[in-house]
Design brief:
- The model has no long low-confidence stretch (mean pLDDT about 95).
- By secondary structure, the chain is mainly alpha-helical.
- The chain contains four helices and two strands; from the N terminus they run βααααβ.
- The protein is globular.
- The chain starts with a strand and ends in a 6-residue tail after the last strand.
- The chain has one domain (about 1-65): 434 Repressor (Amino-terminal Domain), CATH 1.10.260.
- About 55% of the residues lie in helices and about 10% in strands.
Length: about 70
């Protein structure tokens, strides 16, 4: 399974001077609950999410995601 690298969210918060996932959600047009779900790998990120996080962090697209084994595997 491919999911967003949680360190991307940490970097985005730090770069924007934010202290919570709620604030980051506002910054990227999502809810805090969605950001927390992205962080835990419970929600798939959209291309829009990835492009906004790329813009904020300066990371390349391939450095925004990680591959983790499926839970059923």
């Amino acid at each position: 399974m491919i999911r967003i690298d949680p360190t991307v969210l940490d970097d985005a918060r730090r770069i924007c001077g934010l202290t919570s996932d709620e604030q980051l959600g506002v910054q990227i047009g999502r809810t805090g609950a969605t950001v927390r779900s992205l962080r835990k790998g419970l929600t798939s990120s959209s291309i829009t999410d990835l492009m906004e996080l790329k813009r904020i962090t300066g990371r390349t697209l391939d450095n925004l995601v990680i591959q983790v084994p499926d839970a059923a595997a």
